[in-house]
Amino acid sequence: MRWISDNDILIVGLGLMGGSYAKRLRSLGYHVEAIDTRPEAITYAVEHGIIDCGYTEPTEDAIRRAGVLIFAVYPHVFVDWIRQWGHLIRWGAMVTDVTGVKSGIVEEVQQLLPAGVEFIASHPMAGREVYGVENADDRIFRDANYIVVPTDKNTLEGIEWSKELGRLLGFARISVLSPEEHDRMIGFVSQLTHVIAVALMTCSDSTHLVDYTGDSFRDLTRIARINDAMWSELFLMNKAPLLEQMDTFIDEMHTLRGMLEAEDKEGLREKMRLSTARRALFNK
User: What's the pTM value of the predicted model, to 2 decimals?
Assistant: First the structure.
């Protein structure tokens, strides 16, 4: 497998996720370089042993040297980067990403890359509500899910390579979904939850909530501290699946509201029992 024989890795985008990838992979003995537009990110990562060296703009030598390229940038930045610099990626290199939406992105990147370079999309279902390489922490991968997102242009070797990357990073569970399946799923388990958290924080203008709230509200709104540039792009790119999930959630809210208005105690209890049973699956 190409992964085992090639230890030169280039990470494009040295934020929380790119930095956490770098930290883990360098600890395993791989030579890790990075590109990020923030000079302070490169300086921090080098000084703290997260990367071997870095650049504030792409260089031909760094791109051609890499046997593995990992993109941890916004989707539109990823596509633009490949369009401008992808022709420099050497034959036999493996390319992957961490972007939260796949349909439309994966196919375009695969078309843009030169022959002999395989791009296989992936999505680490891990993160924190903080940003930047300064908060890089490879422990976020423990007990987390990693999704491989192949198309019919990917090889079986490429799929296994991506799975092995997930294992090396320390993810507990690895799944395989098509780009369409991924985006429908992510619309529910990730994007809808962020929509709900934002709505909870914006539906009341009380400035004193912090004085009254308990753990339940804090838990539900932890992800409301949100990167508006990134998440608005992800929402719009996944518009149709997310709207479908929002409509489903609104329908369920109407059902619960109707039960409450009708004082249907047994109906409410049945919903709660169903919720409890389904949530228990997450503890296994």
Answer: 0.89
